[in-house]
Amino acid sequence: MKLPLYQIDAFTTERFKGNPAAVVPLTEWLSDEQLQHIAAENNLSETAFFVPLTATASKETGNTDADFDFHLRWFTPTHEVDLCGHATLAAAFTLFEHLGFTGEQVRFKSLGGPLTVTRDEQQLRLDFPSRPPQPIPVPGAILQALGVDSVQFSGRSRDWLLVLDSEQTVANLTPNWYALAQAAQHPVIVTAKGERCDFVSRFFAPSLGINEDPVTGSAHCTLTPYWAGALNRTQLSARQISARGGELTCVLEGERVYLCGQGVTYLTGEIFI
Predict the structure, then answer these.
(1) Considering the entire predicted model, what is its pTM?
(2) Residue pLDDT, tens place only, 136-187
(3) Would you state the torsion angle of the CA atoms of residues 197, 130, 161, 158, taken in this order, to the nearest 10 degrees?
């Protein structure tokens, strides 16, 4: 079987920056085992797969599939995940730029709930759930793996959120990946107030086969409500200061977070399974 493959650098306008995601459009689902094999072979932080939806009822949500355009799933090299921002942007970019999708908004059904991506001038605007962190003490083993002594705030949503004292402290972190994988079964977001933006962050998920993710949209579902409260502002500028780096505009509206960014195509091709 031959399938199309696209690789998109997300949350950037520069090739080789931002966060690369693979996108594999499907006409029907392959087995979960095949999906995971493809994601492992791609060896990127995420591979997105989507199939067109027909008007069938959804018992879980009460929605019908007619409310959506596509069913979207995301896989790391080792696991399926429930929400991924950069690969959602990459999937929408692929539909708009390569597959002739003519609407201004694409609607995805996903494990993370209903998601929409809208063309907004030169940017893509992602409508995602807000996932504010609940305060909880961070285990000492996580701090030790990160090489830090203390944090200004620690909490959890899906992921750990740790607030450090400065952008430079975040930038200088050199985690022990093996120790962090053992200490944290969930991803760890580290963040601080930014010097040239509202806040900066890094994202570590060695337990999911991703030591450091370059630019993580889903992390900003937690970062945005935290910093909106800390800075008393609902529109925020953000930078993820990984080696590749990326920039986002984040807006908090009630229980939703809007993330704006751009993408650029790195490759188009075919895979054989």
Answers:
(1) 0.90
(2) 999 999 999 999 999 999 999 999 999 999 999 999 999 999 999 999 999 9
(3) -150
Tell me the domains of the chain and their CATH numbers: 2-129+260-272 (3.10.310.10), 134-254 (3.10.310.10)
Q: Which residues of 220-250 are buried (b: 16+ CB within 10 A; e: fewer)?
A: bbbbbbbbbebeeeeebebbbbbebbbbbbb
Which residue, 139, 158, 138, 126, is CA-closest to 222? 158
- For 191-239, the pLDDT digits (tens) are 999 999 999 999 999 999 999 999 999 999 999 999 999 999 999 999 9
**What's the rounded Cα separation, in Å, for the pair 16 and 31?**
31
pLDDT given at position 158: 93
What are the catalytic residues? 46
